[in-house]
Amino acid sequence: MTDTTLPFSGAEGALSGLRILDFSHLLQGPFATQLLADLGADVIKIERPGKGDLFRSLTFRNKWVGGTESPNHLAWNRNKRSLALDLKSAEAREIIMKMAEEADVVVQNFRPGVMARLGYGYEAFAAVNPRIVYCSGSGYGEEGPYVSRPGQDMLIQGLTGIMAATGQADQPPTPVGAGFSDQVGAMNMVYGILAALLWRERSGKGQEIKVNLMAGMLAHQNQEMVMAMNFNEDFERPNSGIGHPGMDAPFGTYPTRDGWITIAMSPYARLVEVLGNPDLSRFDDPAILYDRRDEVWAALAEETRRFGSDDLLDRLLEADIWCGRVKSHLEVADDPQVRHMGMITSYTHPTAGEVKCVAPAVKFSDTPASIRRHAPLVGEHSREILAELGYDAAQLDQLAQKGVVGMGGPA
Q1: What GO molecular function annotation could you give as one example from this UniProt entry (predicted)?
Q2: Which CATH code, of 3.30.1310.20, 3.40.50.10540, 3.40.50.1820, 3.40.50.720, is assigned to 2-220+365-406?
Q3: Residue-by-residue pLDDT tens, the chain, 411 positions
Q4: What does the alpha-carbon distance between residue 1 and residue 286 come to, in Å, rounded to a whole number?
Q5: What angle do CA 298, 304, 306 make, to 5 degrees?
Q6: How far is residue 312's CA from residue 334's CA, in Å, rounded to a whole number?
Q7: Angle CA 38–39–41, to nearest 5
């Protein structure tokens, strides 16, 4: 495991010199800006004095890293600087618009209309800096029958078909075990922002980008939507461990003596040969493998249970059958391929101590992504950022005393 908190001594990041004003909170926006920060962008996280991003107060299983820090917040906010401002104050607006003069990107994922009502809509920033790229994230877009609804990940999964297509038919529809809608939304933010920046280099003009979770989840399920709409048939979830509602056997998850494995698209006859039971050949017909897929799965599972996972995987891989082990998060962290890729790292946090995390996933030959900063404390960089804008110590003290600016940092 590598600690990457030390000053970055290699080449500059691909986005070095880019400044982003980040008003986002929870997962979608913060993940998007963290991806950009990992590539060298200067991300200034603008949050509430004292409380900060809502994710600072939310956690899993009532556990806090180092006893104080939310793992949810730590996961999505490294490489950023925190500026704590009361957005409703006139002084804060003056500060933000002064930063906007030189900023490249604004990111926000408040409910539609909130930023505009506070005086921080796209038009306000564009009036100060016509080259600015302004990216908004929402649950359902900025108008329509759902516009006032909360745009939370699990709700979006339920509304866009993926939950109804996941799990077994005799069990409730199953949400993906991660914030999948939010993470898809974050990726859409990033590609929208990068495309707009490229267009700005060609045209000299900034623009507004609107990303919403519902549209993103539909786009990422296009093959399922194309199938359903063109045949006017919904998918039916299987009762067994078949891995997709549109697939036939053997595609799915199978038990072994000591765990579970996955088997993907593979020649059925070759699988039967490896399992060593010729009677399974009676299912070797495309129609049977789909129409009776639960029965086929059960018959295959009886055979896979006879093997230990390692033994069975060795046999399947030798026969060039697509397969893998089902692993928990902790098992993944110790996976030899994950270790080989350097995907598990850590950084040092002033209150949480060592924070183990996943490293940046995209590799660059000349401008590598890196972890240069810990996830900030609320207002940790307020003085630093405002000093860069020309505020002196007396002015900063006055702003802090009025509650306009929150000053934070390690005790």
Answers
A1: CoA-transferase activity
A2: 3.40.50.10540
A3: 444 443 333 458 999 999 999 999 999 999 999 999 999 999 999 999 999 999 999 999 999 999 999 999 999 999 999 999 999 999 999 999 999 999 999 999 999 999 999 999 999 999 999 999 999 999 999 999 999 999 999 999 999 999 999 999 999 999 999 999 999 999 999 999 999 999 999 999 999 999 999 999 999 999 999 999 999 999 999 999 999 999 999 999 999 999 999 999 999 999 999 999 999 999 999 999 999 999 999 999 999 999 999 999 999 999 999 999 999 999 999 999 999 999 999 999 999 999 999 999 999 999 999 999 999 999 999 999 999 999 999 999 999 999 999 998 765
A4: 47
A5: 120
A6: 21
A7: 90
Amino acid at 364: F
Strand order in the sheet with 105-108: 207-212, 133-138, 105-108, 19-22, 42-47, 80-85, 405-406
CA of 55: how far to CAs of 84, 121, 149, in Å?
A: 15, 23, 20
Tokens standing for residue 135? 């990216």
CB 120 within 8 A of CB 134: no
* 32 vs 191: CA distance, rounded Å: 9
Is there a contact between 219 and 58 (Cβ–Cβ < 8 Å)?
no
User: How far apart, in whole angstroms, are the C-alpha atoms of residue 180 and residue 161?
Assistant: 13
170/164 Cα distance (integer angstroms)? 12
φ, ψ dihedrals at 395, nearest 5°: -65, -40
Residue 148 CB coordination number (10 Å) = 11
pLDDT tens-digit readout, 326-342? 999 999 999 999 999 99
Distance from chain centroid for Cα 189: 11
The pair of three-digit structure tokens given for residue 84, joined into one six-digit string: 């704590």
Domain edges within the chain: 2-220+365-406
266's tokens: 């593979």
- CA 58 – CA 26 distance, rounded (Å): 9
Q: From the candidates 22, 38, 86, 182, which is the catalytic residue? A: 182
**Cα–Cα distance, 210 to 151 (Å, whole number):** 14
Distance CA 106, CA 379 (A): 18
